[in-house]
Write a structure and sequence with these properties.
Blueprint: E1 2-7, H1 11-28, E2 34-38, H2 43-51, E3 56-58, E4 95-99, E5 103-105, E6 120-125, E7 136-141, E8 144-149, E9 156-165, H3 166-170, H4 174-185, H5 192-201, E10 205-208, H6 221-224, E11 227-229, H7 249-257, H8 262-268
Parallel strand pairs: 1-2, 1-4, 2-3, 6-10
Antiparallel strand pairs: 4-9, 5-11, 6-9, 7-8
This protein binds manganese (II) ion.
């Protein structure tokens, strides 16, 4: 199963991606299959990925930036994960493990790669309580109307690590339904790609154990995490989110920095 990352032209994400891939390879060897989906046009990003020997899938999304709300355009890369079932480089893959670029592989993920969710698997998002003001949301697809009942408010799943059943998403046009829903509701939803997944798939999402997506601000992150997710403050953040730069944040940030070269550490100072 490929481990898939998605980036846009934000240089911070390129650096995050490098550290993520290096930490993955440190645990699983340089042959571990991975793929980076990129929707931009910047030659320096393409070169950087080639230098890093990360296979690249250049992809033009259906959820084009100009179709998304203004406030969503600054993180247009985070919408790419919604379309993995359509990426040509993944057409022969039944499953894919999507990871945000802001993760650090800290312990082996072998066990995770053996999970086969019906639709998708995600861990719980601890800091975002589930809230929506809609009972149901309708959408149109091929001139027919459909209704999605909003899931019962229990918790939100984090889209930072998502194990996708691509084969299931491709069956019976499910991915096309989902993207139609996404285009028609991108304006109505709070938390971008994550809300779209939570709202549309609801109870069909399998809950993954916390160790597969553990933010460093959790007290047990260092002890239990296999995938550390720098959710909230990024490793270079010295001022943002003071309330989340707690517990294991400093320790995990130090491990993350250990994957960077001298010039990259220098680059960090300007972030
Ligand atoms: Mn993230």
């Amino acid at each position: 199963m490929k481990i898939v990352f998605c980036i846009d032209d934000n240089p911070r994400y390129l650096l995050l991606l490098k550290a993520a891939v290096r930490s993955l390879r440190a645990l699983h060897g340089s042959d571990v299959p991975c793929l980076c989906v990129y929707a931009g046009q910047d030659g320096s990003v393409v070169d950087a990925l080639e230098n890093e020997a990360v296979p690249l899938a250049r992809y033009t999304p259906r959820l084009l930036p100009e179709l998304l709300p203004q406030r969503a355009r600054r993180c247009v890369g985070c919408f790419l994960k919604l379309e993995l079932a359509l990426v040509p480089e993944l057409k022969d893959d039944d499953f894919a493990l999507y990871c945000d670029a802001d993760v650090l592989f800290y312990r082996a993920v072998t066990e995770l790669l053996n999970i086969r969710p019906g639709y998708m698997g995600m861990a719980r998002e601890a800091t975002a309580p589930f809230f929506h003001e809609h009972q149901r949301l309708g959408y149109q697809f091929r001139e027919r109307n459909y209704t999605v009942p909003m899931p019962f408010p229990i918790w939100t799943f984090s889209s930072g690590v998502a194990l996708f059943n691509l084969r299931r998403l491709r069956r019976r046009d499910l991915i096309d339904h989902f993207l139609a829903f996404s285009l028609q509701h991108a304006e109505n939803i709070g938390n971008f790609d994550q809300s779209l997944l939570n709202y549309f798939f609801g109870k069909r999402i399998m809950r993954l154990p916390d160790r597969w997506n553990r933010p460093p601000y959790q007290h047990d992150c260092q002890e239990t995490a296999h995938i550390v997710h720098f959710h909230g403050p990024k490793p270079w953040d010295k001022n943002a989110f003071p309330e989340l730069r707690i517990n294991c944040f400093e320790a995990m940030r130090a491990v993350w920095m250990g994957y960077l070269r001298e010039d990259e550490l220098e680059q960090l100072k300007h972030f």
